[in-house]
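pasting Phosphatidylglycerol--prolipoprotein diacylglyceryl transferase for the record, 263 residues
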Amino acid sequence: MLAFPQIDPVAVRIGPLAVHWYGLMYLLGFASVWFLGNWRIKMGKTRLNQKDLEDLIFYAVLGVVLGGRLGYVLFYKPAYYFSHPQEIFFLWQGGMSFHGGLLGVIAVILLLARLRKYRWMEVSDFVAPLCPLALAAGRLGNFINGELWGRITDVPWAMVFPGSGDGLPRHPSQLYNLSLEGICLFVLLWWFSNKPRPLGQTSAVFLIGYGCLRFIEEFAREPDDFLGFLVAGSTMGQLLSLPMVATGIIMFIVCGRQASKAS
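structre below
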């Protein structure tokens, strides 16, 4: 069993101001999107320009926060928040959903594509390879905070997370998330998008890849205590990932057929 590195969640204190590692991880994630996006623009991998990228990042921040929060409210605790609507805005209490944040980013992509006269899948194909490293940074923030821990296990790399309250060794599932949906998905998408592909297929690979990897990761992650296990022993994360995979497969096939007809 490995010792959990209990890192102070506050990275820097300047008087009454406290800068948290989790916030820094968000900044690191969006910074990686900026650097990778600029590289793709300079290499001629897209018609989008630097102004488009900067606007995408600015509005994507809003999409991630608003979509992530509303997704958590609607997918995870609808009854509670409908009874306590004022707490929907209590972001400092935590509670964000990746799938909700994804819907927020999709809304931003659709809006920017409409305003700048791009095809929306052209924008999404540009954005998709930029996202996994940002996801990895977020999962590192989860690990530093000692949250979203895994299920009880006896594997040699198990850790005791203080926040679990039971002192039992658990999977460091945040690191699994970081490795799979972060680094592995980045490598896959960067390789796939580096060659000319039918419009929309890069976005489809993101949906399929993330959905499959998240589904697998959930087998090691402790489900939310207020939800527990759902249909056939699945978790909410798995149920939300299935539509991603199905949509991605359909997109991949349809986009490939459309490209064949056009050629």
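The chain has a mean pLDDT of 92.
Residues 10-262 form one domain.
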